[in-house]
Amino acid sequence: FDEMGLGTRFAEKPAPIWRAPEAAFADIQALGNDLEAAARAIAPVLRDIDGRLGSDACVRAHGLSGSGATMFALTDDMPSAKLLSETLLRQHTDWWVQPARFASLDEREGPR
Q1: Fewer CB within 10 Å, N or C, the chain?
Q2: Of 37-41, 66-70, 73-77, 104-108, which gets the smallest average pLDDT?
Q3: Paired sense of beta strands 70-74 and 61-65, if any
Q4: Distance between CA 68 and CA 42 in Å, rounded?
């Protein structure tokens, strides 16, 4: 990462507030990950995983999580996530795949 001269764009920013899933998907996909180039240099298999996730019709956004330990794919709903998970596990028995649901802030706070 340092040798590639990356990370010069880091600046503290407030967390985004998305009013619709489409906005979140678009922003997440556009954001990318500054560590991706360095992670791909070390683990070229990430290119294959990225291509597979990006080619699935139910994936709305996908990318590298953190410094490259995992890749993620976002779908519209849990049934789509489970279908994607099952498909990936059938095609790639050596991958670790786990569907998960993210709750909105309102859902975590409980009823008002």
Answers
A1: C
A2: 104-108
A3: antiparallel
A4: 10
